[in-house]
Inverse folding.
């Protein structure tokens, strides 16, 4: 079963992003943002099936990585402010960053195995 706003292809993307070490919530949020020019947290929650705190934490992590930007939307009356979110860099650039991180991890694993073999002699 897929969530309302995510297609089968999106679910595969989420799974692949999680394999690079991203949390499920970050991956779902990122995949949804990829499809939208700009969106609110409420829309992300509705489309991905994530709860408000999960989206909030994922957005903080994505902003920390400088992958997402947030802007305040003026609204009438009282209540909590509404924020609009969008990708700060193209999705393919994010994939390149993840690829670079994964390659560094592979190099570290290979170096570790090499050292293990040397010390095991």
């Amino acid at each position: 079963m897929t969530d309302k706003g995510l297609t089968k292809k999106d679910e595969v993307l989420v799974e692949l992003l999680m394999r690079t070490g991203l949390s499920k919530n970050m991956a779902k949020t990122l995949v949804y943002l990829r499809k939208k020019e700009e969106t609110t947290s409420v829309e992300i929650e509705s489309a991905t099936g994530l709860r408000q705190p999960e989206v909030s934490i994922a957005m903080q992590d994505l902003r920390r990585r400088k992958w997402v930007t947030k802007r305040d939307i003026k609204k009438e009356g009282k209540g909590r402010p509404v924020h609009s979110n969008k990708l700060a860099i193209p999705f393919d650039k994010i994939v390149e960053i993840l690829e670079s991180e994964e390659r560094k991890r592979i190099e570290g694993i290979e170096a570790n195995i090499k050292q293990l073999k040397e010390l095991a002699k």
In short: The beta strands are 39-40, 68-73, 82-87. The mean pLDDT is 92.
